[in-house]
Amino acid sequence: MTLSIDLRSDTVTKPSAAMRDFIANCEVDDDVIDVDPTVGALQELIAELTGKEAAVFMPSGTMTNQIGLRVHCRPGDEFICESGCHIYNYEQGAYASLSGLSPSLVTGNNGILEPDQLLGTIKADNEHFPITKLLCLENTHNRGGGRVQPYENVEQICQWAHENGLKTHLDGARLFNAVAATGISAKEWASHFDTVSICFSKGLGAPVGSALCGTKEQMYYARRHRKAFGGGMRQAGIIAAGALFALQNNVERMTQDHENAQQLASMIKTTDGLSLPGPVDTNIVMMDIDKKVGTAAALTGELDSQGVRCLALGPQRIRLVTHLDVTTEQVSTACGIIIKTVNEVLDGSRELSGSGAQY
Ligand SMILES: *Cc1c(COP(=O)(O)O)cnc(C)c1O
Questions:
Q1: CA end-to-end span of the chain
Q2: pLDDT tens across 25-73, in order?
Q3: pLDDT tens digits, residue range 331-349?
Q4: What Å distances lie between residue 345 and 86, 117, 351, CA to CA?
Q5: Which of 120, 197, 228, 234 is surrounded by the fewest CB atoms within 10 Å?
């Protein structure tokens, strides 16, 4: 079998035999008419884990984020977010096209915002300006390299937001990675936010699905918007079961992914031509490529042809992500291939010719 170590994303995981078994045996019913029992069980569990009254299951994290925005804002309003965040960069500008909102951007350090950066960002009550309604944070921060927002920053930023009449939304696509990295519970992190979005298809390893959590009233409207956004799903227990299994089985093991990420980080630190743009807190590793090696796209293409799959995230930046379908041993193998390739390029015995896609 040809070698394939897939470090492109933690979304590439495939359901295990045990998960498939659990999915095959779950009870289902029509979740649009009322509630599918498996979806109901998942919603109750994730609401409990995040300390919220209720949750609504949706097909994607993009939908939970966009409906989170929609629950808090009306057309013409604006929300404050970090400029590298997923909601702004990777959701096709849906806040504008679907809800008529504008973003107000603040740039953090590898996605980490300091409380004093927010001061002065709420627009005055003046008809020239949109109404600032909402503050969004992302934890862990994807483009920031999986960084965990410092807990005190989250506490202070959300307190400031609430004192100034804003609502708060957490893009917690990888909140359980922050939980694994800090030992601070999902409930504690979530307590500072009005709504929280959780992805089951990232490090948790489910094939599909996300949930939005909040008050019963907010979730009543979230469910209404979900139908209008095309996310009302009938026997959705079939996919919710994978998420339920993931929550029950795959949370504790995430620390293993973080250890594997440290192995990649050490390799990058000690290899000439490679460098780390910031600390590695969880399962995402950003690897900067010196121009003397070549471009990120060229190195990605070359590594791909050798069975190590990763994504170019910028002209000189590659992202490597650990997850439950890569073992410690596979990560060691990948490290060996990366070191050898970069060394050979630098000593002139190998030329980079391929070209991977850039995200
Ligand atoms: C993956 C991701 C999402 C949601 O993505 P979908 O592919 O729509 O499920 C949202 N936020 C962050 C930070 C993510 O990494």
A1: 29
A2: 999 999 999 999 999 999 999 999 999 999 999 999 999 999 999 999 9
A3: 999 999 999 999 999 999 9
A4: 34, 42, 6
A5: 120
Q: Whose CA is nearest to atom 4 of ligand 1?
A: 61
Name the CATH architecture for the domain at 5-10+253-346.
Alpha-Beta Complex (3.90)
State which of 90, 149, 311 you would mutate to test the pocket of ligand 1, scoring each by most atoms of that ligand within 8 A of its C-beta. Answer: 90
Each domain of the chain, given as residue ranges in start order, spans: 5-10+253-346, 31-249
- Domain 31-249 in CATH 3.30.870.10? The answer is no
Q: Is 263 in the pocket of ligand 1 (CB under 6 A)?
A: no
Please state whether the peptide bond connecting residue 140 to the residue before it is cis, i.e. omega within 30 degrees of 0: yes
Q: Which of 267, 322, 317 is nearest to 144 (CA)?
A: 317
Residue-wise DSSP of 163-179: HTT-EEEEEETTHHHHH
pLDDT at 120: 96
Atom from ligand 1 closest to the CA of residue 138:
13
Q: CB-based contacts of 48: which residues, under 8 Å, 6+ apart?
A: none
Burial label, 104 (beta-carbon count in 10 A; 0-12, 13-18, 19+) = middle
